[in-house]
Every structure is written in structure tokens, then in C-alpha cells.
Design goal:
Shape: globular
Helix content: under 10%
Number of strands: 34
Strand content: 25-35%
Structural class: mainly beta
Number of domains: 1
Number of helices: 4
Largest sheet: 19 strands, parallel
Radius of gyration: 22 Å
Length: 429
């Protein structure tokens, strides 16, 4: 009888383990939601010539029409609580020579409500496009940040008085970003902070941000400074900087999002898929305010280099995720594929003092990573491997080539499909 009971327990554990192993991880969807609105080869895409110029300040409610193609000449500020509405299918080009940028100032709104078959596109005005051709899209709100004084100003080469962000309203709205692409932005200007493709500063939780793609940024794809917001279906393609950077006490939920890196496109400085911090400088942080808390679910973080071993040997492959001190971070039901290592935790975090309680890494699929979780500046991670390898976290470990793991990432005729082939999620360590 005892032997039979043991067999039953073994069978039950096997069924449970198999079910867990087959659980969907990474980006999900009954169909490939990257279809139609994304563009993975934007340098080859041609748009109409510009026939309308935007410059200076937009102070009244304004609509940009699909029939026109617009040029951002220098920084363009939407001010005076105005609403800028952009029709689906509209193309806006950033002028390279004048550092074209669109700044939605505090109190103003952008309604960029594209559709799956008619997305809104921000791109370069150069005939041969490259990363950093123009500045980027900047949205400033009045939700809380944790810098002393409760407000700050963007440190780009912009008018400081027009780039103030931060306040006390977490439910504020800065508008809608839906089915929108930002291509070849992130300009670097000597003496100033580099632009991001998309900067969200103190944005409130009534703002809608979904189905947004940032491609070939010379700096970060998306930087979130404080605020309280939720995002889903966000795509970052071959950013030179971080794909998703969070700081200044941001309270953010990110769902079903994708970061596609390549060793040869990363910048000279360290760049990650996710970079989570509570402050830029500790001495500027007001610890009476909320520290950063980021929850990311069903995300796929993938390095698509074709020769991972050689790139690792050459030092071109870095970590996928960095978690700073004094932050709360959860990454769940996600895939990290092709990094060295998968996650690095700030060396100010002390595991022996309970420092890992705020860092939840669970139901993850660590694939083809040279090392999984490390404390910064250490080489021995046995304790962390044991901790996050505990069955309670339900993490899986494997070494499956990307072109086998994902449904179709090398399609020559259609958009790639970065959903995991369920049958490839195995239980080997």
C-alpha cells in the first residue's frame, strides 16, 4: 500500500510539474499582436514628403491630419493646457538639423489614438535614417515624483520653464498613446542629457499607453520618471541604451511587452532591457515619498545576436535586468533569453538582511543565459541560484536557440512572432 501511495504522489507531482512547465511565458496572445502596426525594418520604409511644418508653441486645441506629413522643426511645445489630437495614420518627422522634438507640457494632453492597421508614426526626416537622427517625444505630467520639492525639469537642451514635471495628482491624464511608433530618435547633444525616444515624466494613471513601439533609439527607448501608470504591448527594438528605464519613484505596471536587443547595437556604456531604480542621485531623493515599484508581467527580453558564445567572449553581451537599491521589483511569467547574466542586483541590496524580499523573480524562463542572478560586483552567485531556484518561484532553466524557442523571429515576409512555442518550455536545469 505504501508503495502504491508513493507512486500516486510521484504521478501527481509529475502532472503538476508538467502543467507548470507548459505554462505560457513571455508575451502572449491567441494571435501575433505584433502584426500590422509594428515595423521591424523601419530604415526601408518610405513615407510621403513633409508638407506641413510645426514649430514653436501650440497653445490651442489642434488636430494633425492623416492627409498631411508634418515636420517638427526644433522643439515644439504643446502648452496652455491645449490638447494635440493626431489622426490615425499620421506621419510626423523630426528634423535632424534643428533637433526636432515634441514636448507635451504639464497640463496639456496628446491624443495619439492610432489603430492596428493605421498606426501613428514619429520618424526621422533624413533619406538615410539612423539612430539618434532627431530628439524624441516627451510627455510631462503632474503625478508625484520623489525628488525634493516634488517637481523637476528635463535636463535636455530645452526651455527649463517649459519642461517642468511633477505634482500631487496620481490620477492625472496626459492623454492617449495607442498604436504608435517612434523611430530613430534619442539624439545626443553635447553638454546635455541624451534624449530618449519616449520620455514619460510624472505621468498619471488615467493616461492610456498601449501598443507603442520605439525602434533604433540612440539612447533609451522608454524612460519613466516618477508618476503612476500602466502600460501594455510595448515594444523596444535595438535600442543603444536601456529599453525600459524606471526611476524617481515611479509606480508602474507593465504587461505583455517585448525588448529585442542585439550585441552590435548596444552602446559603449552598459545598457539593459530593464533598468529599475528609485532615484538618479540618492542625495536628491525625498525618502518620505514613494520609492520606485515596478511590476512587469508576461514580458520577453531577448538578445537576437546570432553568435552568442562569440559575443559573450568579446564582452559584447551584458545583463538583461538591473535592479537598484531601495526599489520594489517583480518580474513574472516572463522570458529572459541570451544574456550574461540575466539579472544583476545592486550591491547595496543585502540578501542576508532580507534585501531580496522586495525583488520577486518568479515563473521565469531563463534561456541561454550565462549565469542567472548575481549581486553586482560579485562572481559567486550560488546562494542566489539556490534562492531563486527554489520551487516556490517556479523558475525554469534551459538552453534553446532563439529560432527554436520562438514561433518565428526570422520571417522575411511578415512581422516576426516572439511568442514562445509552448512545447519548447522544458523543465531541465
Amino acid at each position: 500500500m505504501r508503495k502504491l501511495l508513493n507512486l500516486r504522489w510521484i504521478a501527481l507531482l509529475a502532472v503538476t510539474f508538467t502543467a507548470n512547465a507548459q505554462q505560457e511565458k513571455g508575451i502572449i496572445g491567441s494571435t501575433n499582436w505584433l502584426n500590422n502596426w509594428t515595423e521591424f525594418k523601419p530604415a526601408k520604409t518610405e513615407y510621403n514628403e513633409t508638407n506641413q511644418i510645426l514649430y514653436g508653441k501650440i497653445t490651442t486645441n489642434t488636430t494633425l491630419l492623416k492627409k498631411n506629413t508634418y515636420l517638427l522643426q526644433g522643439p515644439v511645445y504643446v502648452t496652455n493646457n491645449a490638447v494635440l489630437t493626431i489622426e490615425p495614420g499620421t506621419v510626423i518627422k523630426g528634423d535632424s538639423e534643428t533637433n526636432g522634438a515634441l514636448v507635451i507640457t504639464k497640463g496639456a494632453q496628446i491624443i495619439a489614438n492610432g489603430t492596428e492597421t493605421d498606426p501613428i508614426v514619429f520618424t526621422s526626416n533624413k533619406p538615410v535614417k539612423k539612430a539618434g537622427d532627431w530628439a524624441g517625444l516627451i510627455i510631462l505630467g503632474d503625478a508625484p515624483i520623489n525628488k525634493f520639492g516634488g517637481t523637476s525639469s528635463i535636463a535636455y537642451d530645452l526651455d527649463p520653464a517649459s519642461t517642468i514635471y511633477g505634482g500631487t495628482n496620481p490620477t492625472a491624464t496626459s492623454g492617449v498613446l495607442r498604436f504608435l511608433r517612434v523611430e530613430f530618435a534619442g539624439k545626443k547633444i553635447k553638454g546635455f542629457k541624451d534624449y530618449n525616444a519616449l520620455t514619460l515624466a510624472a505621468v498619471g494613471n488615467k493616461t492610456v499607453i498601449e501598443n507603442v513601439m520605439c525602434s533604433f533609439s540612440a539612447s533609451n527607448s522608454l524612460e519613466v520618471l516618477g508618476g503612476e501608470l500602466a502600460m501594455k504591448n510595448i515594444v523596444s527594438l535595438r535600442s543603444s541604451g536601456d529599453d525600459f528605464r524606471f526611476t524617481q519613484g515611479t509606480q508602474c505596471k507593465m504587461d505583455n511587452s517585448l525588448a529585442v536587443r542585439h550585441s552590435l547595437y548596444s552602446g559603449a556604456t552598459r545598457a539593459r532591457c530593464m533598468n529599475v531604480n528609485s532615484y538618479d542621485k540618492k542625495e536628491e531623493a525625498d525618502f518620505s515619498k514613494k520609492l520606485s515599484s515596478v511590476v512587469a508581467t508576461n514580458c520577453t527580453l531577448v538578445n537576437t545576436t546570432e553568435n552568442l558564445a562569440a559575443d559573450i567572449t568579446s564582452g559584447l553581451v551584458k545583463e538583461a535586468v538591473f535592479v537598484g537599491d531601495n526599489t520594489t521589483f517583480a518580474l513574472k511569467n516572463s522570458v529572459i533569453s541570451g544574456f550574461m547574466p540575466a539579472v544583476i542586483i545592486d550591491d547595496e541590496v543585502k540578501p542576508e538582511a532580507g534585501g531580496l524580499k522586495k525583488i520577486a523573480l518568479s515563473q521565469l524562463y531563463f534561456n541561454y543565459c550565462k549565469g542567472n542572478v548575481f549581486i553586482e560586483n560579485t562572481t559567486n552567485n550560488e546562494d542566489l541560484e539556490d534562492y531563486y531556484g527554489n520551487p516556490q518561484f517556479s523558475n525554469l532553466y534551459e538552453s534553446t536557440p532563439n529560432d527554436v524557442l520562438f514561433i518565428d523571429i526570422k520571417s522575411a515576409t511578415k512581422n516576426p512572432d516572439f511568442r514562445v512555442q509552448i512545447g519548447k518550455i522544458t523543465a531541465s536545469k
